[in-house]
């Protein structure tokens, strides 16, 4: 069975489009806590409540630079996301099996 070239081209374009949608972590860069802006560091330290910040990643989302940190507070894992100006975007408890 032969597929018309137009149908094959449409399928290939759709497949490439879907592949592009799956790329959501290509711009994540692990950074040291000491290297993030002071406002970001202050928010991360406040939100981690004296717990341990285990990893910080910088990435661009919707044209904005954001910092996501993994923190352990009293044995509970948290994901904290902060804007470059230090404003808190989200703080969510890690789900089992994530990381």
List the helices and strands and how they pair.
Elements: H1 5-22, E1 29-31, H2 38-47, E2 52-61, E3 64-73, E4 76-83, E5 88-93
Antiparallel strand pairs: 1-2, 2-3, 3-4, 4-5
Structure explained in plain terms:
With 99 residues, this protein is α+β, with helices and mostly antiparallel strands. The chain has a domain of 68 residues: Roll (Nuclear Transport Factor 2, Chain: A). 28% of the residues lie in helices and 37% in strands. It has 2 helices and 5 strands; from the N terminus they run H-E-H-E-E-E-E. Strands 1-2-3-4-5 form a 5-stranded antiparallel beta sheet, with helices on one face.
Short description:
This protein is of the alpha+beta class and 99 residues long.
Order of helices and strands: HEHEEEE
Q: Biggest sheet, in brief?
A: 5 strands, antiparallel
Shape: globular
CATH topology of the domain at 26-93: Nuclear Transport Factor 2, Chain: A
Number of strands: 5
Q: Can you tag this structure with a few keywords?
A:
alpha+beta; 5 strands; Nuclear Transport Factor 2, Chain: A; 99 residues; 5-stranded antiparallel β-sheet
